[in-house]
Amino acid sequence: MTHVAGTTPYPWPWHGELDAQRLALLLISCPATSQPGEWPAAPAEGLASVIREAGGLVVDVRVRAGGPAPASGTSVSAPGWDGFYASPLDTLLRRAGRDLLLLAGCCMETGVHSTMRSANDRGYECLLVADATRAAQEDLRAGAVSTIEMSGGIFGAVGATTAVTTALTSKEWI
């Protein structure tokens, strides 16, 4: 069994089958992220690189026409705060066989949170990568994280970039 270390409120993924071939990183961008430096790009970019190297999929999800278009890679646009709403995201993930989702980007309490709740409703196993996610208002961060973790992880789990990277680069499962 392989989990990402230190995730709360439960070991992620819950079934202990961390498999990069089933993994996708959703990098959410909202209108507020159109300015450079608006969200923690360095942890997210490093994480994206590790995900790709391990065989995972990285998807740039632009919600409400947020952020600049990615230079390369897979991207989808959604007209609402939820990256699944009126977009091909669910179809893209299912066709690629991806059911383990990492979520990062901006903003935590809008696009990231809405997309995570929607993914959970669709049966995806979700992990918020908290240190690679910016809040629009820092005083709302704790509440947004608490909402994910309540009731034993009603919307998924919460973890950190370093722990995800360590789990994916560990010789134990590669």
TrEMBL record:
The keyword Hydrolase applies. Keywords: Hydrolase. SUPFAM superfamilies: Isochorismatase-like hydrolases (SSF52499). GO terms for molecular function: hydrolase activity. It comes from the Bacteria. Residues 79-152 form the Isochorismatase-like domain. The keyword Hydrolase applies. PANTHER family: FAMILY HYDROLASE, PUTATIVE (AFU_ORTHOLOGUE AFUA_2G08700)-RELATED, PEROXYUREIDOACRYLATE/UREIDOACRYLATE AMIDOHYDROLASE-RELATED. This is Cysteine hydrolase family protein. It comes from Nonomuraea insulae.
